[in-house]
DNA sequence: GTTTTATATAGTAAAACTACTATATTCAAA
DNA sequence: TTTGAATATAGTAGTTTTACTATATAAAAC
């Protein structure tokens, strides 16, 4: 029902697109989800998520450019964390969806997807 | 708090990434949002959103491949609609976020973004 | 001082996306 | 049966992403 009352503004569409696009990569989703537990160093992400270090840095750099993560430096280590609750909100949204899919409340089967919608 | 209880499954991450990435384009967000009002023909989208027809078809094809939209053909016209509530859920999530940003409840200012998180 | 450790950066080839133009296809209409 | 309307497709040049390898930096540890 958030359809007509909360019309997505043109300016926001740009931001939303950029955020969604950036979040649209398996590794980055994993990283963001991992960061929900609090700030982590590149090495922790690298080891715990089993991703190559340069790849991790690359993803983090992209996400930093797009304001998804921030970091603080301490000696030779960089501690990254989520930049905004916005990101968590989306992640939770995805989690909710997953829950409904797992519980069978929704069909995510596709190919068989039926959706008549309110066709007048 | 959907962190540890509802762990995002590896399989879902793939789907989520594909969906988010696909939604990560201004035109496609506009189209999806437009389709929330019910099914529309290519021509309607083309005219109402002021997007070139081939571009619209291109986006719709991609979104169909990624199971975001479905369509039914009637004569020479194609009626497109959203394939799953999943998509609406995400859109609503984005709308909510926008609402909070507009109301100043959150800062989306970035660059100034502060986020200490629960640093132990 | 020299060697690790922790990260960022450069460089790059292959793949995917974007935005267009031109054209084919299929119905509907005259 | 020719025309026009509604869409899909093909083709393509330019731009981003991706995924790696190699390397530069800077702080720590010896």
Question: How would you portray this structure in words?
Answer:
Two copies of one chain form a homodimer. Chain A is mainly alpha-helical and 120 residues long. The first copy, chain A, has a single domain (11-95), classed as Arc Repressor Mutant, subunit A, CATH 1.10.10. Chain A has five helices and three strands; from the N terminus they run ααβααββα. Chain A has helices at residues 10-23, 26-35, 42-48, 53-65, 85-102; strands spanning 40-41, 69-74, 77-82. In chain A, strand 2 and strand 3 (77-82) form a beta hairpin. Chain A starts with 9 loop residues before the first helix and ends in an 18-residue tail after the last helix. The first copy, chain A, binds a DNA duplex (30 and 30 nucleotides) through residues 25, 41-43, 46, 52-58, 61-62, 75-78.
Characteristics:
homodimer; 120 residues; 3 strands; disordered N terminus; disordered C terminus
Q: What is the CA-based Rg of chain A, rounded?
A: 18 Å
CATH topology of chain A: Arc Repressor Mutant, subunit A
Q: What is the tally of beta strands of chain A?
A: 3
CATH superfamily of chain A: Winged helix-like DNA-binding domain superfamily/Winged helix DNA-binding domain
Mean pLDDT of chain A: 81
CATH 2nd-level architecture of chain A:
Orthogonal Bundle
Which percent band covers the strand fraction of chain A?
5-15%
Sketch the major β-sheet of chain A: 3 strands, antiparallel
- Strand order in space, largest sheet of chain A: 1-3-2
Kindly give the count of domains of chain A: 1
């Amino acid at each position: 029902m958030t359809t007509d009352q909360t019309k997505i503004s043109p300016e926001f569409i740009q931001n939303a697109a950029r955020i969604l696009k950036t979040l649209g990569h398996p590794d980055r989703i994993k990283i963001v989800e991992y960061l929900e537990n609090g700030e982590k160093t590149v090495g922790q992400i690298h080891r715990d998520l089993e991703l190559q270090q340069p790849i991790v840095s690359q993803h983090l750099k992209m996400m930093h450019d797009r304001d998804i993560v921030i970091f603080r430096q301490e000696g030779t280590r960089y501690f990254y964390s989520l930049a905004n609750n916005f990101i968590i909100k989306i992640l939770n949204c995805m989690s909710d969806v997953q829950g409904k899919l797992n519980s069978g409340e929704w069909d995510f089967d596709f190919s068989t997807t039926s959706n008549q919608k309110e066709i007048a």
